[in-house]
Amino acid sequence: GKRAQTDSQTSDTDDLSTSDRRSFSECCVCKKSISGMIVQALGKNWHPHHFTCFKCKEPISGSKFNLHDGNPYCENDFAQLYLKKCFGCGLPIRDVVIMAMGQSWHTEHFVCCACGTKLAHQAYYEREGNPFCTNCYEDKFCPRCTLCNKPIIDTAVMALGNCWHQECFKCNNCDEVISDTAFELYKDKAVCLDCAKILKKLKIETTPF
Question: pLDDT tens digit string along 101-113?
Fold first, then answer.
């Protein structure tokens, strides 16, 4: 499995200002005077019905609009045309985009495939195209220590046909961690070389391993 970290992006919007003016201004589209409600956007003045979406040609209402190549778009058309689509649900992502596993995701849709924990802004593991939180990955795929039965995350000691944490592979006689690569067997249990020497002095047979 590959351990990775998510990244995030956001999309930009621009401000739309409307006001009820009694002084006259010229609409940048029809060049006629504007009395009453005026739309101010992109450094220009507009009649409300002339400030329209570049795609659907409908008037843009509200206090925000989207801009692409200098043209204004309503929220729905901009989302369909230019926003990234969530790999989880297929819909446009209107706020924060989570970039992970080579795809774009809604924050709520990039989750551990085993337990459903949200993985945005934290480390995760990828296995066979599926994201896993750290706990689920370690529980499902990491080997377990013969002594403590906990997942082995880092280096494992392979001995006697089993896996061990380095700190769990201990001498069966003195209970000290066996740090050497060599050890001996006593009653099919690992003993460190120092204990093996003591046992031999007591004329107790050990087997080099």
Answer: 999 999 999 999 9
CA dist 42 to 36, 96, 156, Å?
Answer: 20, 25, 62
For residue 182, which amino acid is it?
A
Class of domain 97-140: mainly beta
Q: Does domain 28-82 correspond to CATH entry 2.60.120.200?
A: no
| 28/154 Cα distance (integer angstroms) | 66
Domain residue ranges in the chain = 28-82, 97-140, 154-205
Q: Give the containing element (helix H, strand E) for 75.
A: helix 75-82
The Cα–Cα gap between 165 and 202 comes to 31
Identical fold between 97-140 and 154-205 = yes
CA separation for the pair 152, 1 (Å, rounded): 14
Tokens representing 180 are 């050497």
Please tell me the pTM assigned to this model.
0.60
CATH architecture of 154-205: Ribbon (2.10)
pLDDT band at 8 (very low <50, low <70, confident <90, very high): very low
The two tokens of residue 7 are 């990244």
